[in-house]
Amino acid sequence: MPGIWVYNFLQLFVIACALLAHHASTRISDIIRLSITASELVRGKITLAETADFWVKGTKSPGYSIIQISNVIEVVSELILIGCSISFVWDATETFLLQGTCNPPNYIGSVLSPNIAIQQFIQGDADFATIYNYGLPLSDGIIGAWAGWPMNNPMDSFTIEGQGPVYIIQAECDDGQPQPSINTNGASNIVSSVLSSNGREFMLEMSVTLPAGSVFDDIAQTVVNSTFQQECVVFVQVGVGVIQYSFVSDQWSAVTGGRLVAASSPSRSFSVAYPTSPSSFARTAQLAFRETTDSYGVLPLIRQSVFQSVLNASYYPSQGATFCNYLSWATYPDGYYHTEAMYRGLAAGIGSSAHYAIMQYNPSLTIAEIIYWATMRATKKTPGFTEARRALQHPMRFALDTAHTLSRFQTSSPDDYCNVTTRKSVRAIGNRIVRYGEDINTCENEIGHLQIGEAGFISTVKEDKMYGSFTPT
């Protein structure tokens, strides 16, 4: 169906038809009873005085029992129909529509751009973001992840599913206290120190100083008219998980930054999804993801981005507000920072810094590197290394190895990277005659070009002709 509105319309149409049928049957019953009553009156079987008793009271009318049973059956049927429409549950399913390509989460050689001021970038980015752009909210933090970036827009709304890096952020803050002797000049200041750091995680101790008149103290239930300071601790852990990330595109082929829909540990011992993620705790996620490591090598980027954002930073408000965008999730609609929500502001702020880092994937892989990477990720066994190396050393074997790798991709759910719900289109390719040979457009050239394509567009490889830097033997 094009959308849920079609089902809702059909349900309303069926219910309306049932109500009309019920009303019509009642009217027909009245007409029949009136006709029988008139006939009995004409034939003298009842008197005019008996007509009212015969007709109005109903129990003496002809066909009374049958009509009542029919009415009960109709009412019960309509109630069942309406009840089913209300209690109807939609189950998520994978549909096979179109195929798209994407840049996988590869961080080999990735660095943070020295030409971008991270604090200013994130301040602007957070101004139009929701928390789902950076991760799913938890009871005491957020969980974020990245599955890949689409290279085209197969439809207006689509999802990339696959394995990728995951970051879990846990934040805790005290109730805070006024600091009248400190003047922040309208800025929200964050000063942090590193408590611990290793190859999987790091912990920060943070002091957040907020300008006068910007904080609502949820303990005292009043707006604080002096500078206010809260002490917090933030724990960041990185691992690998199975991710669903949704994107929306427009008619001019632009794609949004996307939003995280669901994430789970590889063993499925922990999973969260929109909109029920706030019922889960960051500590539970941390324990589940300890079975994984930072195999994507993204933690150094996240650590660098977070440190540049919060080690010693001052954020100023914009658009006439008293709060800064970096900590905007610590506010309520009244426009004030709330002491009970500061953990949310820091978790989301650091989540935006981590998301900025995780977006610094390496999109400049060559075809040979992509083939090698994809083949390596298809299996952790020795044949994966063999086929990846052979694809580079013996290009003529590329077609056979690629076919084998693709078939393995289709049967490996966790390792099916950047799957834009498109396995059907891949299967459809198998029904065509696909060849590996020379592009027909280069047949007259001295040096030919080898590629994979449909029959009719590919010519047979000639042993005495040069193809790039490779001569068939």
Main attributes of the structure:
473 residues; alpha+beta; 3 domains; 10-stranded antiparallel sheet; 3-stranded mixed sheet; 34% helix; flat; disordered C terminus
Short description:
The protein has eleven helices and 20 strands. The chain is α+β, with helices and mostly antiparallel strands and 473 residues long.
Structure, explained:
It is a single chain. The protein contains eleven helices and 20 strands. It has 473 residues and is an alpha+beta fold. The chain folds into three domains: 4-86; 102-358, no CATH class; 367-467, no CATH class. Strand 9 and strand 10 (222-224) form a beta hairpin. Helix 4 (118-126) packs across helix 7 (342-358), helix 8 runs antiparallel to helix 9 (382-393) and helix 8 (367-378) crosses helix 10 (398-411). It is flat, with a radius of gyration of 34 Å.
User: What spatial form do the alpha-carbon principal axes imply?
Assistant: flat
Number of domains: 3
Described by strand count, sense and barrel closure, the largest sheet is:
10 strands, antiparallel
| Content of β-strand | 15-25%
Task: Give unreliable regions as ranges.
Answer: 379-383, 412-426, 469-473
Please give the count of helices.
11
Question: Mean pLDDT score, rounded?
Answer: 80
End-to-end distance: 54 Å
Radius of gyration, Cα only, in angstroms? 34 Å
**What oligomeric state do the depicted chains represent?**
single chain
Structural class: alpha+beta
Helical coverage, percent range: 25-40%
Number of DSSP E strands:
20
